[in-house]
Amino acid sequence: ARTCRPPRWRTCCGATPPSIVKITEAAGVALGTFYLYFPGKLELFTEVVIDLNRQLRMAMSEGSKGATTRLEAERGGFRAYFDFIARNPAVYPIIREAWFVAPDALHLHYERIQAGYTEALADAVEEGEIAPVDPEVAAWALMGIGEMVGMRYQSWPDPDRTTAQIPDDVFEACMTIITNALTPRKDTHE
């Protein structure tokens, strides 16, 4: 299967492609072949969301690979998340559009990220590596930090910044917040 290329799609057609003709032109395939793979635009859009989710989760997993602590994994995962967003700026508009166009795909997108995240945080809580937080609530909160900070510093136009990369000081501020939230206090595991 071909990997979806949302940035090219967005450049050509906008967040939601206006016609099957534009979609097939952008993809470089014959108009009639579209329906061999998708019943319509909604199904294609859903596949784009699912593919972006797969790519994003893979990038974050790769980013945290080799970490020896949960906090190292957070640093690597967040860096990979922000790098992925810098390389794929259409992620935010596509995910926002899914709220209205394909809410089931949006729900699946977040649930897939949250499920693995919750499991990893639960393991870290169990081992006393991080504070005794509710792993699911912590996963959603951390996801919110990444998404909102990325949107603000990577997606919104800023004439003083010429790159889509997250500024180092912003990244370090995020890591300070996360470290302070997750570091166990001396009296919490005694």
From TrEMBL:
- The identity of this protein, by name, is TetR/AcrR family transcriptional regulator
Q: Which GO terms describe its molecular function?
A: DNA-binding transcription factor activity; transcription cis-regulatory region binding
Give start and end of each HTH tetR-type domain: 22-48
Coiled-coil residues are none
A Pfam family that this protein carries is TetR_N
Keywords annotated in UniProt:
DNA-binding, Transcription, Transcription regulation
